[in-house]
Every structure is written in structure tokens, then in C-alpha cells.
Design a protein that fits this description.
This is MarR family transcriptional regulator. With about 140 residues, the protein is mostly helical. It has one domain: Orthogonal Bundle (Arc Repressor Mutant, subunit A), CATH 1.10.10.10. The chain is built from 6 helices and 3 strands; from the N terminus they run H-H-E-H-H-E-E-H-H. It has a 3-stranded antiparallel beta sheet with strand order 1-3-2. Strand 2 and strand 3 form a beta hairpin. Helix 1 packs across helix 5, helix 2 crosses helix 3 and helix 2 crosses helix 5. The longest helix has 26 residues.
Length: about 140
């Protein structure tokens, strides 16, 4: 059984690394990393959103998200605003340039993912997602 668990763990790591590299390759033309994309994607879906909430959703610590956010602001993709109700909170939203770039990136990400999952049915992906969620739950 140990060899089976070793094989599952090894294959999982290999696939995760290849998927990350594939996504990174697709994002290179936009000068955006997968980590930056995860922040842009969340902000696009939830804006205006606090930095703390972004960190929770992308499962990264606050200092990491702060660095990513600063880079994205310098690239004119994100805008920061102080929350009118609580001045301690910084709210993030996409800039006009960010909105345009996110749509282009989303198309590439969807194309990349459809390549990753070619020949796999939605039902199979659902089972896979369920198994991954259970493994993640066991890890917590």
C-alpha cells in the first residue's frame, strides 16, 4: 500500500507542477504571474474587496498579498481606496486597464484549462474535485 500512496503523492506533485508551469507560460504574454492572476481574478469577482478578504480567498498570508497588490497597482491593474465606513480597511478593485486585461487573461486561462482537461468529462472532473476537497480537508 505504501508504494500506491507514494505513486499518488508523486503524480499529484508532478501534475500540480506541470499545471502551474502551463498556466505560467500562458500568462507570460501579459506579464502576470499565476499568483498575481489569482488576486486579479478574486478582485474581478468580488470588488470592492478588502485585502484581508483577498488573502483568505487566495489562501495566502497578508504580507504576500500586500506585495502582489503593490505590484498590480504599479502595473495600473488594481486601484486602492479607503473604506468610507472604516478607514483602516483598504478596498481593492480593478482599474479600467485591469478590467480589459483580466478579460484577455481569462480567455487564455480558460483555453489553457480546456487543454489540461481534454478528454475528461465534467462528471470525472467533479469526482476529482470532490476527492481533492476531501484530501485537503484531511490535511487541515
Amino acid at each position: 500500500m505504501r508504494d500506491f500512496y507514494d505513486d499518488v503523492t508523486f503524480r499529484t506533485n508532478v501534475v500540480a507542477r506541470k499545471a502551474s508551469l502551463g498556466l505560467q507560460h500562458g500568462l507570460e504574454r501579459f506579464a502576470v504571474t499565476p499568483e498575481q492572476w489569482s488576486v486579479l481574478n478574486v478582485v474581478d469577482q468580488k470588488a470592492p474587496i478588502s485585502q484581508r478578504h483577498v488573502a483568505e480567498l487566495v489562501e495566502k498570508d497578508a504580507p504576500t498579498v500586500n506585495r502582489i497588490m503593490d505590484v498590480l497597482v504599479r502595473k495600473n491593474l488594481l486601484e486602492k481606496a479607503v473604506d468610507k465606513k472604516d478607514r483602516r480597511i483598504t478596498l481593492l478593485s480593478l482599474s479600467m486597464e485591469g478590467k480589459q486585461k483580466v478579460q484577455l487573461i481569462r480567455n487564455v486561462v480558460e483555453e489553457t484549462c480546456s487543454h489540461f482537461y481534454r478528454g475528461i468529462s465534467d462528471t470525472e472532473l467533479g469526482v476529482y474535485l470532490n476527492v481533492l476537497a476531501r484530501i485537503e480537508n484531511n490535511l487541515e
